[in-house]
Amino acid sequence: MAKKKGLDRSSPENLVLIAKLQSKLRMSWLVWLGYRSLGLPILLGMLLATQPDKLGGIAWQLLWLIPALIVTPWILKGKSPYALLMSSMLTLVYLGASGVTLFSRFYDSGISVLWVYGIDLLLILIINVWLFKLLKRLPSMNDKFKDSI
């Protein structure tokens, strides 16, 4: 049987792809943080008939984003597979919560503000895709143990 050719993680092409993925991830992360903390509460404050407090909404979103703010330095650096794996697990939780919120708001608020939650879901989905692609490209977490065996 022919041996399957693996990904050469130290090749120049891979390093260029890693740099591109890191910049895409960084930009997507910052856009999502900005949208989730400021854009979502302001848009909902303008669009919902109940006119919720925008400042209270921003405070609530910042409270909800504390775990994301903690992992932000890991995401912005984008180099440690361990840290990115933990960040990936956290963003999957945020993705699930955003999806549940999207569908629950569909029954609660109707379709008029559904696009506001849809943007949030799309942004966190894009972040998860970039994270998975970057984790695939980064050096393996167990390379240092392979040499000693």
Summarize the SSE layout with pairings:
Layout: H1 12-47, H2 54-64, H3 66-77, H4 81-108, H5 114-137, H6 143-146
Helix pairs in contact: 1-2, 1-3, 1-5, 3-4, 4-5
Mean of all residue-level pLDDT scores: 87
Largest sheet: none
- Catalogue the unreliable spans: none
Backbone shape: elongated
Q: How many structural domains? A: 1
Radius of gyration (CA) equals 19 Å
Order of helices and strands, N to C?
HHHHHH
From the N-terminal CA to the C-terminal CA, the straight-line distance is 25 Å
Number of strands: 0
What structural class do you assign from the helix and strand content? mainly alpha
Strand percentage, roughly? under 5%
Helix content: over 70%
Number of helices: 6
Question: How is this structure best described in words?
Answer:
With 149 residues, the protein is mainly α. The protein has one domain. It has helices at residues 12-47, 54-64, 66-77, 81-108, 114-137, 143-146. α4 runs antiparallel to α5 (114-137). 19% of the residues are buried.
Name a few traits of the molecule.
mainly alpha; 6 helices; 149 residues; elongated
